[in-house]
Amino acid sequence: MSKKLILMIGFMIILVATVGFGTDFNAVPLFNKIGGDDNVSVDIPDATITRVQLTESGSDIISATIFVKNTDSIAHSYNICVITKAGTLISDTVGTSSDCNNSASISASSTGSTVITFTNPLITADVHATNISVQQIT
Questions:
Q1: Which residues touch 135 (CB under 8 Å, ≥6 apart)?
Q2: In this structure, are residues 22 and 53 in contact, taking their beta carbons and an 8 Å threshold?
Q3: What whole-number distance in Å separates Cα of residue 135 and Cα of residue 72?
Q4: Which of 50, 80, 100, 102 lies most in the core, judged by the most C-beta atoms within 10 Å?
Q5: Helix (H, G, I), strand (E, B) or coil at 4
Q6: What digits encode the pLDDT tens for the residues 26-78?
């Protein structure tokens, strides 16, 4: 094959891929700002989630007890949040931290727990996704 044909085919592939994904050649490239001055950084907590226990009432999940082990050599307390999706319902009220709770101080290498009561009870059979976050606060 001639080099011109290979070049033309390559250009067509790039053109189709670029336009096909909703952009064009006039788009200004943006720099990735990961690690930039305007980013908010959150330290990794010295904690491990050891167990999650759901409390049901009838066919609804009404709360979750989260057990957290402090893996550091000093005591800490943690802010723990649980967001659960069941069908079209999400446990948290949008824009709030209603499904979050602060733990009591957990001594070094010990396990503590906190109970989070869901604002919107969820149908047990519909639960298909749960996100748990732990942030060290002291």
A1: 42, 45, 78, 79, 80
A2: no
A3: 14
A4: 80
A5: helix
A6: 555 555 555 566 666 566 778 989 999 989 998 888 889 999 999 999 999 99
